[in-house]
Amino acid sequence: MKTIVKYIRTHLKEDYNTSTYLIFILFLSVFISINHATDLAVNFLSNTINTPLLVVSYFLFFGFAYYATIAIIVFTKSDYSFIKSRGFWFTSIFAILLVSLRLGFLEHYKWIYENTAPEKAFFYIKIATRAMRTLIFSFGILFFYYFFEKYNTNFYGFSTKKLSWKPYFLLLLFVIPVIIIASFQPSFLSQYPSIGYTGNTINKMNALAIYEAVYLLDFISIEWFFRGFLVLSMIKILGSKSILPMVALYVFFHIGKPTGEIIGSIFGGYLLGIISLHSKSIIGGIIIHIGVAFLMDFMAIIQKLDIYYR
């Protein structure tokens, strides 16, 4: 834990600015509050859900999150230097396009509905969607690395040098009580377990085993993108300033989840971003992210044991 505390202290010394952080928190708070009351973001995106414009809608949505935070940093810290960098614009636009494709590409839905039994289509879509999203993030990052950034020797955080495992498992222990309490909330149980109800035509234990493997693998790609690519590819341009824009994008990425989880993504994204920035590794973040995801599903399954596994 001393290592993580040291990372936080070092980062705050380098990055903290009262005006920046206050306006940033206000920005996210207003957005989360409005979305909680009106479902504004979901309604905005749903208008194009069955059209090719869905990717464009996501691009505008995520671009707003990222560049609004950049604007806050620019005006509160009076730092305009990185705005002139072509690398900043190229990398950030590529990243926003990649996350937009991840959520906006739904072409496999129609194929599955047309080529599988209706009672099994929901399960196949869940599996295919998770697999497709993992591939989009993974191949997108690999594409960028191969053509533009081969000098990134730690491969956006896949490094175990000087990695101490203990702090991350201790953090998981601290999170367990929070997850247990959350598991009794209706909003939590409406979202988890993330596999949903697979019906009676598929063996539930087999479905769970297959889905959880794909589901948890997806979290590796999520961590690789947010804490690896968005932070470690931007160090040379933004330095410590790369964390807050990533956090904003990560929060918007959670829209549609329970409000408590969206709020939690602020703190989780910030902490994991700091760890990645200063350790140059995403391995710890992967441990925490996969651990939290598994525990959330596990607690929901226990709560719904009579429905899913009777």
From TrEMBL:
Q: Which InterPro entries match?
A: Rce1/LyrA-like_dom
Instruction: Please give a single GO biological process term from the UniProt record.
Output: CAAX-box protein maturation
Lineage top rank: taxon:
Bacteria
Is Membrane one of the keywords? yes
Q: Where is the CAAX prenyl protease 2/Lysostaphin resistance protein A-like domain?
A: 210-293
Can you tell me where the transmembrane regions are? 21-38, 58-75, 87-105, 125-148, 168-188, 208-226, 281-302
Keyword set for this entry?
Membrane, Transmembrane, Transmembrane helix
**What would be an example GO MF term here?**
endopeptidase activity
Spell out the protein name for this chain.
CAAX prenyl protease 2/Lysostaphin resistance protein A-like domain-containing protein
